[in-house]
Amino acid sequence: MQALIVKDIAAEIDAIVLGDETIAISRLASLLSAKNTEITFLSNPRYRDDLVNCKAAAVILTEEDLPFCPDNLVKLVVKNPYFAYAKIARLLDTTPKPATDISKYAVIAKSAVLGKNVSIGANAVIEDGVVLGDDVVIGAGCFIGKYTKIGARTKLWANVSVYHEVEIGEDCLFQSSAVVGSDGFGYANHQGNWIKIPQLGRVIIGNRVEIGACTTIDRGALGDTVIEDGVIIDNLCQVAHNVHIGKNTAIAGCVTLAGSLKIGSNCQIGGASVLNGHMSIADGVVVTGMGMVMRPIDKPGIYSSGIPLQTNKEWRKTAALVMNIDKMNKRIKVLEKELKSSNSTDNMDVNES
After folding, report:
1. Domains in the chain: boundaries
2. Do domains 4-91 and 107-303 have the same CATH topology?
3. CA angle centred on 19, ends 13 and 22, rounded to 5°
4. Would you say domain 107-303 falls under CATH 2.160.10.10?
5. What Gene Ontology terms describe where this protein resides (cellular component) (predicted)?
6. Residue 28: enclosing H or E segment and its boundaries?
7. Does residue 138 contact residue 123 with C-beta atoms inside 8 Å?
């Protein structure tokens, strides 16, 4: 990718430049690894001391961090360095497209409708009735099931599987091996045998949604599984049938969402959390990592559960106490009853005197 000039970068991130604006920048790097043709950033004051040893050509930082920055570094002063870093990373992104043009090895049904400038990789399969918007990119080995619709500029990396009748919005990104529209876990037990219940709903995904590698999103049993605009879901997550996720919610890796769960807008779900089904989570809820959410949450805020890591010796003591909580509770109730009886007797003696 062609190098960028500091002046142009500053204009993109609305920065004040202190130093030479004409320096060419080849790439973005971390504080300690950056070289003299690269740009870096400081978003956490804890790493101010690293500025002394920084070899970058330029650094993005706040006005509060300026006194800690050596004179030899060109400084781009902004209010939010991390946001600026994100914008520059997009400018300097060298990630290739999942596919270019339409491979002769792709299998495309005659009834499929392709927009302008669509790219489809080798061994991809596009079934009957599929509609692909303008500038859609389908990576190698992808499967797009019957009557699925994918909006403009959406990209699918290699080996993504999208089942039938799924609707995906514009400007979405799906990492490799994501599965969208697979059957939900629906079975009826009859005389000890599991009878499969066909999953008749769909998956509806809004605009600007990003789905991580190996994440699975089940189709609805009767209604639809819905993921609204701006949602981001990390790798290895499970979204069960009829889950509804509100706008701009972020879900970290290895999260499990049980069926018919409704999550509000602007929530954050920490990694490896498990959320029970058939309940609602309010807007603006943050669940920290490894949270176990078994009941509805009706107010925004930060929620946590689980026991942080301890040494084995400490954990064994904690576990022993937890196992004896019921006995301790019974003893406390007996003591409270005896104390109450004793206080009552004392009061009677005082009144009699």
Report:
1. 4-91, 107-303, 317-348
2. no
3. 75
4. yes
5. membrane
6. strand 27-28
7. no
CATH 3.40.1390.10 assigned to 4-91 = yes
Per-residue pLDDT of the chain (353 residues; tens, 9 = 90+): 568 999 999 999 999 999 999 999 999 999 999 999 999 999 999 999 999 999 999 999 999 999 999 999 999 999 999 999 999 999 999 899 999 999 999 999 999 999 999 999 999 999 999 999 999 999 999 999 999 999 999 999 999 999 999 999 999 999 999 999 999 999 999 999 999 999 999 999 999 999 999 999 999 999 999 999 999 999 999 999 999 999 999 999 999 999 999 999 999 999 999 999 999 999 999 999 999 999 999 999 999 998 888 999 999 999 999 899 999 999 999 999 989 888 776 665 655 55
pTM over 0.85: yes
Q: Are residues 203 and 181 in contact, defined by beta-carbon separation less than 8 angstroms?
A: yes
* Amino acid letter for position 237: C
Q: Which residues are catalytic?
A: 241
197: left (phi over 0), alpha (psi -120 to 50) or beta: beta
